[in-house]
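Note to self: keep these together.
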Amino acid sequence: MDSGVPPGLPQQFAAAGRIPLAVVVVDGDGLVSHWSSGARRLFGHPKEEALGQPAGDLMPVAGALAEEEGGVAHGMYDDYDDLGPGLHARGSYPTAGRAKVSHPERGRLDVLWWAYPLIGPGPGRHLVLAADAGQLRPEHAETDTDFLRIAPGFAHHTEFADSDALARRLPDILPNMGPAESSRIIAQVLELGYPVLEFSRHDRVPVTPDWGVPRRAPGRYGGPGPGPGQTQPEHEAGWPEREAARPGGGAPPRPELDLEYAAVRERLEFLNEISGRIGSSLDLARTIREVTSAAVPRFTDFAGTHLRAAVLAGEGFPDGPPDATTIWHRVWVEHNDEPGRWDDTVPVGEAIAFPEHTPFFQCMVTGEPVLIPRLSEEAGNRISAEFEKRDLRPLINNRSLLLVPLKARDVVLGFMVLMRRPDREPFDDMDRTTGAELAARAGLVLDNARMYTYQENVAETLQDSMLPQVAPRMAGCDIATRYLPGTRLGRIGGDWFDAVKLPGSRTALVVGDVMGHGLNSAAMMGQLRTAVQTMATMEMPPAQLLRNLDDLAQRLGEQYLATCLYAVYDPIRSEVQIANAGHIPPVLVRAEDGSGEVLGIPTGAPIGVGGVAFETVTVRVDPGDRLVLCTDGLVEVRGEDIGDGLAALCASAAHPAASMDDACDTIIRALNTRGGRKDDVALLMARLNGIPDGDVAEYELAVDPREVGRARRMVRERLLGWSLPHAVETAELMVSELVTNALHHARAHRVGLRLVRTDALLCEVTDDEPAPATLLNAGRDDESGRGLRVVSSLAREWGTSSTAHGKTVWFEQSLTRKAPVRHHG
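Structure:
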């Protein structure tokens, strides 16, 4: 080894970094694309047999590659030791581990490995380095306890004296690669971290490729010495001079070294145990509890973890370094003192900003550990005085204090307060190193949990923003909806539902499912849902709307495939027009006898297939009938016939319920408990109440200016007949303006007027001019152009829709005496 030798370590580690390496490149499918001769020697598989095979079947690194292999960890390895399958987070971080592996000829091997994620051109997505840990094992060790345990890890190559030489030597190990690809991979390796053999956080030896370890005379701590024709490296020359020879060529016992290495081993075992305990979940709160509790009582008597507010809230990566105004949350406390001693003074859940002149502030600002071997009375009193309304002196005076930052990517996410009681050995420099290493590993685990929490929040926000807020009551129908995210990673998908208000008191009911999952499906869903809303307000027949949606999907791209069910309910005619594009059929529950049936409508082809005709089917309904639309995630279970799911949907939908919400909950409880559901679920139920004939009044007006006055009289008579005298004046004024405009633009001899009473008054005026009505900026001297402005200022809602045969201008007037909510449509 040329540099980086930890002082005081056995001489065998001076050359420990120079060991034969196996070098493997794995593509995005988890298959081997490069296999070095070192890999053949270490794992026993020839290159021609290894290429194209799953990497997890050939070497013990499946844990690092599991994401690329669909989460299935293939492997020939038997078990991991305490180091676990990985010392660092997956994803964009390198991983490392130590494992026992079965060799076809050499039996059991102890393998150290390092895996790097790769980005950029080329098939390679992981670079894997591996080495036989047996190269570091003392030759004459009788038991495993004589074998100093070494952890594979990572460090910046610039931390070592010969950093330039290390960087230059690394490209030589890449198998069968050109200069461009080799340079790209090496640049990423150097950025992610140089492979090292790790004794503690600050005692590391860089790994360098070497196809033969120099042998030397065996000693107390073993290891090869110079072989025939070899000389001892210069940096080892001092060891024989400092140790007297004894029979057999061994070095004399060194009790102080035994104690030192026993302490090192104990701390390594503690860190290994901690690594196995923390990070078992991506739940942020659970991870915090694991990190804090793991240190008590083996390492400390009190442990308290503080996190920045942004981290705890899952709001993304904190901006900038912390300062005196940064708010920290005490998220967990663990101790072995008497119960309740800490609860009032340092309660869990407290939000606090730490004063500048305290060791806590020093730790969080510098990002470095702070060690106070023993807090004197004077120092404890001074620290306590910085905090208002609390007396820390009984808790901290005469205790040993160690503060360690929780960092990720050089940003302080939080810090841990560790304290030992006065009757225990105080923290020393080795404890500071151990605590810093604990915090480093915990910081990575916390960052993983933080990123997962943040992504969950983003996914839920995205999904919520794309799903509509459907009004529970529409003209002539009541609506209830449910959405359940799938159990697949990401919690977002392409299922959607919608309800769109249409002219004539009609309502469009939509449910759809974009094929696939994740952000792409959610984005496609948002585009298709917007398109459906837009075309629905243009009064397109259901089949024509799906035809246009199919054309749009093909223009957007080949990946746009979706199923969609589009229905238009007319409460005046008591009918539903439905068209289907590859979706599961709806269920209709008849109010007369409570029976449920799957409507037999043509299935059609999914949106995006192209070239397939859609068909509109008209279904007669009665007041009180319920129409149930859902996505296949509710009724489809892997391994079962979808017909069974539809039958279960019919049965549960027909079950009596006190309300629409209760009816939806009954369906969800009945079907969502069926095993195997992983897909999203969208459910929309509409109770088709209808509008009685007595609440509808229709008139025909001749194209004659005198008909404006007649329209006002008919509106007055009808509203008085409906016992709505307070609505007469406003309704007369708005109807007068709309009829005047219609008579001005009509080309035939008739203008239609319809009044509908529901929870509001709906008025529609129809003429045969297709051009839509628009708001105009009328000048002071203009004699026209103010009619729609009057309607806009008085109506709760208003709008206009056009067809090839004419247009309809409508408004809704509130029937309460409250001030109207003005809406331009």
